[in-house]
Amino acid sequence: MGEEARGHNLRELLGVLTSALLEEGLREEAKMLAEYVSRKRRELAELSDAHTRATYGLAEYTRVTATLLLQIAKDVIGKLRELEGRLKLLSRWRAIVAKAASVIKELYPDVEVYVFGGAAEGRLTVLSDVDVAVVMEEPPEDRAGMLARIWENLEARGVPQYYPLEIHILSRKEFERIRGAKIRLT
Questions:
Q1: How many domains does the chain have?
Q2: What is the structure's pLDDT at 167?
Q3: 59 lies in the same domain as 112
Q4: Fewer CB atoms inside 10 A, N or C side of the chain?
Q5: What average pLDDT does this structure show over 174-183?
Q6: Are both 30 and 98 inside the same structural domain?
Q7: Residue 135 contacts residue 114 (beta carbons within 8 Å)
Q8: Together in a domain, 85 and 118
Q9: Is the pLDDT assigned to residue 100 strictly greater than 50?
Q10: Model confidence pLDDT, tens digit, residues 59-68
């Protein structure tokens, strides 16, 4: 994905980005972008036509049309920034999970901590969260209180509340019912 794409057509550039995402194994992200392009086909055509007409001096735009085109461009940029931000967040999942495991073990030394789901199976996408299981024989009745304490300590260590980390407090029996890959962290 480090190559510079050159082209005159926004739809074409978004297609190149979609292909690059597929090549990197990011199928969900590619699908999301392709669906966005399909939903916004008319607006993207408007931008493309505006670019051509402005480049060759073929048109002047009213304030209303220029405002509409600017809003379409802002929408495209916003979608790309959303995709970029989510990918940046998820790219740090290993460090975040290691920090979470450390915090959890400091607070609750007798538990085991696992990562499972898409992260453990190597199939994270831009829409994924990272699943962490805190496993013990008998979880406390107040699991929410335990989660709140964990998150309070994670936030104090720089993990933002909005990070897509899903912490599950589970009994050993509950954990054994979960299918798929599980990686023990502690």
A1: 2
A2: 97
A3: no
A4: N
A5: 96
A6: no
A7: yes
A8: no
A9: yes
A10: 788 899 889 8
